[in-house]
Amino acid sequence: MGTLAEDVVNALREAGALLTPGLTAEELATVQDQWGVEFSADHAEFLRLAVPLGEGWVDWRGPAEPVALLLRVPTDGLLYDVEHNDFWPASWGERVSDPTTALGVASEHLAGWPRLLPLYSHRYLPPGPLASPSPVFSVVQSDVVYFGVDLMEWVQREFFGVPLPTGRDLRPLVPHWTQLAEGSEDFDL
Fold first, then answer.
1. Is residue 132 pLDDT above 80, yes or no?
2. Are 147 and 185 in contact (CB under 8 A)?
3. What is the mean pLDDT of the chain?
4. How many CB atoms lie within 10 A of CB 5?
5. C-alpha to C-alpha distance for 42 and 132, rounded to whole angstroms
6. Contact 136, 120 (CB under 8 A)
7. Is 97 helix (H, G, I), strand (E, B) or coil?
8. CA 25 to CA 102: how far, in whole Å?
9. Where are the domains of the chain?
10. What is the β-pairing status of strands 18-21 and 50-53?
11. Phi, then psi, of 31 in degrees rounded to 5
């Protein structure tokens, strides 16, 4: 048995994922600089070992536009729910009635939330620095759920249909996103 990232790469290989060579240290630094992000330790180690490609995967070496879109999806989804589905955390104060102003206020609040990093389809990892293991979130607008306590549990669930165990403490906390995943009444605690 290897490291978490090695086990994840082996499981993805078994699942039939197309795995390309991992990012070099220079490529990883360039990606982080280009997008103004920091990968969690687990995510960075995984990407150093292999970069999966194909439908649903992020091509960190590819064109900028798809990556930029994937980086915006979590926040854009929340803004969509502000505009169309009454998403408004109580800690943001009373919701303003003007829709344009409401979106502006929501955007200001969301700018302070950690920027989730795309992993696969609508699965996201928190940014670094974060202690291992990094939870995997499934994010569709304001419907945010845990999809694994770590990358291996996510692979087992995503590609092999293993159910997510219940009754566990899924730490570490990821500000705001953890509250959404846990169904908190106020998503901005």
1. no
2. no
3. 91
4. 22
5. 6
6. no
7. coil
8. 42
9. 4-181
10. antiparallel
11. -60, -45
Verify cis geometry, omega within 30 degrees of 0, for the bond prior to 114.
no
- Tokens 């509250």 sit on residue: 179
Model pLDDT, residue 116: 96
Using the structure block, give the residue that is written with the tokens 């439908």: 55
Question: For residue 189, what pLDDT is reported?
Answer: 42
Q: What is the CA radius of gyration of the chain?
A: 17
Provide the token pair at 145.
């759920």
Q: What are the tokens at 74?
A: 């979590």
In DSSP terms, 139 is beta-bridged to 144
Q: What is the DSSP letter of 92?
A: G
Q: Pairing mode, if any, of strands 136-140 and 143-148?
A: antiparallel
d(CA 18, CA 36): 27
Q: Residue 71 half-sphere exposure, CB side, CA atoms within 13 Å?
A: 19
With a cut of 80, say whether residue 172 has pLDDT above it: no
Q: β-pairing, 50-53 with 123-125?
A: unpaired
Measured at the alpha carbon of residue 119, what is the angle toward residues 90 and 145, in degrees to the nearest 5?
35
pLDDT given at position 154: 95
Q: Which helix (H) or strand (E) holds 118?
A: strand 117-120
Q: Provide the whole-model pTM.
A: 0.92
The whole-angstrom separation of Cα 18 and Cα 92 is 43
